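User: Could you go from structure to sequence for me? I need the amino acid at each position, not a summary. Structure tokens:
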């Protein structure tokens, strides 16, 4: 029996069990009552780079103490076992890579990479806390910024087209731990549906996508995803 082409799209909910706060859980705001949409923008950085950097340095320090959970580890197992598998993530926490996933499309960048706000300089940087804040570019002395996609910024065209193609060709798409509110990521499941692929949603609550999917599996994905993977392996003789 040929194995189906499997794609997974993850959001902040996949890291919740690891202790990484999601964007919508913190009442009134993720940090000091600020909403991410206020701080994760080019205009906020232009206006107050130190404040935006305090927000990211706080997240980097928090995430540095977090480890992959069974949902991340299950996705890494799929990556290792399945010939046709793509993981697409909206998360910037690096926990999929830490869990061992290799074929990962990071739609919104990576909090462990910095890039210059002026020249092409980029670096991987895991220093917590980061000092001085804001860090300066060693080449041109302009401010470095987190190498993430802010609201109002375009995603990398190549990453987005590879993610779109993977979803359009998927026999099965797993949508895990996302509120399905942020575009263009939230559009991706509709490419699978348009090509008659099956979409399974893993979430602790209904989302705007729930009414469109093949099946909505309610519960914590760190439990429901390993169970689903177990059934899949039995069905396709992988166990
Ligand atoms: C773009 C990186 C165009 C940064 C992120 C007005 C002005 C400007 C733009 C817009 C606008 N109106 C709309 C837009 C478009 C905007 C958008 O969609 N806004 C939303 C708010 C309406 N999108 C953009 O701006 C995008 N760019 O459109 O560019 C363009 C084109 C050409 C040229 C120039 C411009 C860029 C969007 C990317 C923003 N960056 N992250 C950072 O992280 O600091 S988005 C960020 O928020 C995350 O990456 C993620 O994508 C999103 C949060 O969503 P989720 O991951 O889903 O997390 P959330 O907390 O929402 O939900 C968690 C879910 O998990 C919940 O459903 C919960 O029930 C569930 N859950 C919790 N625990 C568990 C669980 N499920 C299972 N198990 C559990 N244990
Ligand atoms: Zn520079």
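Assistant: Here is the amino acid at each position, in order:
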């Amino acid at each position: 029996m040929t194995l189906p082409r499997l794609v997974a799209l993850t959001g902040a909910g996949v890291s919740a069990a690891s202790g990484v706060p999601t964007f919508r859980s913190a009442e009134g705001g993720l940090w000091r009552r600020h909403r991410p949409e206020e701080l994760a923008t080019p205009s906020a950085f232009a206006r107050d780079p130190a404040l935006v950097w305090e927000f990211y340095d706080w997240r980097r320090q928090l995430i540095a103490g977090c480890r992959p959970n069974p949902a991340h580890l299950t996705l890494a197992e799929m990556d290792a076992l399945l010939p046709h598998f793509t993981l697409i993530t909206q998360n910037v926490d690096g926990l999929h890579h830490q869990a061992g996933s290799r074929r990962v499309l990071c739609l919104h960048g990576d909090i462990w990479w910095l890039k210059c706000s002026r020249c092409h300089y980029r670096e991987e940087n895991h220093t917590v806390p980061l000092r001085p804040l804001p860090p300066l570019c060693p080449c041109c002395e302009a401010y470095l910024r987190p190498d993430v996609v802010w609201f109002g910024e375009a995603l990398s065209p190549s990453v987005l087209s590879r993610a779109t193609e993977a979803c359009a060709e998927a026999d099965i798409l797993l949508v895990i731990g996302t509120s399905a509110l942020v575009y263009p990521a939230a559009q991706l499941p509709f490419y699978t549906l348009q090509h008659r692929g099956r979409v399974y949603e893993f979430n602790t609550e209904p989302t705007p996508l729930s009414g469109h999917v093949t099946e909505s599996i309610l519960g914590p994905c760190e439990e429901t995803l390993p169970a689903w993977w177990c059934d899949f392996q039995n069905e396709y003789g992988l166990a």
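One structural detail worth keeping in mind: Residues 116, 118-119, 121, 137, 139-140, 142 surround zinc ion (ligand 2) (CB under 6 Å).
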